[in-house]
Amino acid sequence: MCIHSGIDDGISTDGEMGKMVVTILSAMAQAERQRILERTNEGRQEAMAKGVVFGRKRKIDRDAVLNMWQQGLGASHISKTMNIARSTVYKVINESN
């Protein structure tokens, strides 16, 4: 088995020594990947402890949806008025109960 890259750096992957080099480089890459994941998770946990909120911002005004629902307006009317899906209206209503 011979692994080719776009750059000819003079390292042969043929033979037992070549396989050993590839194995060592692979192990180093896996270890580095694990370190990156650990540092990323630590940073994420620190940010969460400081109150940082992850994810995209909600574009739905849940209070407005609930107020319209309590006024007796239907889900279809609310969805058209708020420019959201009818299923989202029902989701907001169910989550409030």
Automatic annotation (TrEMBL):
Residues 1-51 form the Resolvase/invertase-type recombinase catalytic domain. InterPro entries: Homeodomain-like_sf, Resolv_N, Resolvase-like_N_sf, Resolvase_HTH_dom. It comes from the Bacteria. One of its GO terms (molecular function) is DNA binding. Pfam families: HTH_7, Resolvase. Gene3D superfamilies: 6.10.250.10, Homeodomain-like (1.10.10.60). Belongs to the site-specific recombinase resolvase family. This is Site-specific recombinases, DNA invertase pin homologs. It comes from uncultured Rhodospirillales bacterium HF0070_31K06.
